[in-house]
Automatic annotation (TrEMBL):
<feature type="binding site">
    <location>
        <position position="171"/>
    </location>
    <ligand>
        <name>Ca(2+)</name>
    </ligand>
</feature>
<feature type="binding site">
    <location>
        <position position="126"/>
    </location>
    <ligand>
        <name>Ca(2+)</name>
    </ligand>
</feature>
<keyword id="KW-0106">Calcium</keyword>
<feature type="binding site">
    <location>
        <position position="176"/>
    </location>
    <ligand>
        <name>Ca(2+)</name>
    </ligand>
</feature>
<dbReference type="InterPro" id="IPR011992">
    <property type="entry name" value="EF-hand-dom_pair"/>
</dbReference>
<feature type="binding site">
    <location>
        <position position="165"/>
    </location>
    <ligand>
        <name>Ca(2+)</name>
    </ligand>
</feature>
<comment type="similarity">
    <text>Belongs to the parvalbumin family.</text>
</comment>
<dbReference type="Pfam" id="PF13499">
    <property type="entry name" value="EF-hand_7"/>
</dbReference>
<dbReference type="InterPro" id="IPR002048">
    <property type="entry name" value="EF_hand_dom"/>
</dbReference>
<feature type="binding site">
    <location>
        <position position="167"/>
    </location>
    <ligand>
        <name>Ca(2+)</name>
    </ligand>
</feature>
<keyword id="KW-0514">Muscle protein</keyword>
<keyword id="KW-0677">Repeat</keyword>
<comment type="function">
    <text>In muscle, parvalbumin is thought to be involved in relaxation after contraction. It binds two calcium ions.</text>
</comment>
<feature type="binding site">
    <location>
        <position position="169"/>
    </location>
    <ligand>
        <name>Ca(2+)</name>
    </ligand>
</feature>
<dbReference type="InterPro" id="IPR008080">
    <property type="entry name" value="Parvalbumin"/>
</dbReference>
<protein>
    <recommendedName>
        <fullName>Parvalbumin</fullName>
    </recommendedName>
</protein>
<feature type="binding site">
    <location>
        <position position="132"/>
    </location>
    <ligand>
        <name>Ca(2+)</name>
    </ligand>
</feature>
Amino acid sequence: MAMENVIVYDPECASAPSHRMLCLPENMLRSMEKGQSRGGQPLAHTCCHQNRDDALTPAFLQLLTHRRPTSKTIMAIANFLTASDITSAINACKAKDSFNPSVFFKTIGLSKKTPAEIETVFKILDQDKSGYIEQDELQLFLQNFSKGARPLTAAETRAFLMEGDSDGDGKIGWDEFSALVKSS
């Protein structure tokens, strides 16, 4: 079984744009997610300094160690959303820049669910359990519903954030998420 490489983007990197991308073997990313180290240094630090000539930014380190959606996450969502609705919603936004949160929520039937069920989805999407869905979590939004789904593009992620972030703090809280879903 071939190991896939994962490309991670660091938007805060002050170097040339080519240095903002880092290609890692998936097994190394998984090791970093588990907090493993090599030679006393966190694996993320070691890897980055082998591949880049500048220091890690806080946002990049967070991206490297951020938990990606798992099969367990997808199963939790599938407990109250139908597989056919999820498939329809994912298929409707397969093309890049075709994602629309309101259409997605309506298609999967989330807008018809109880506040408790909507809150369950919010908690699943809030991967770092901060109480907010931040930009990096929004980028992986579709993958929470289907393992093979694509990440949102930068434009889709920004549009999603702008639509849901009513107080302008750069993240979507529970009240904002609930209002966005209900307006679908």
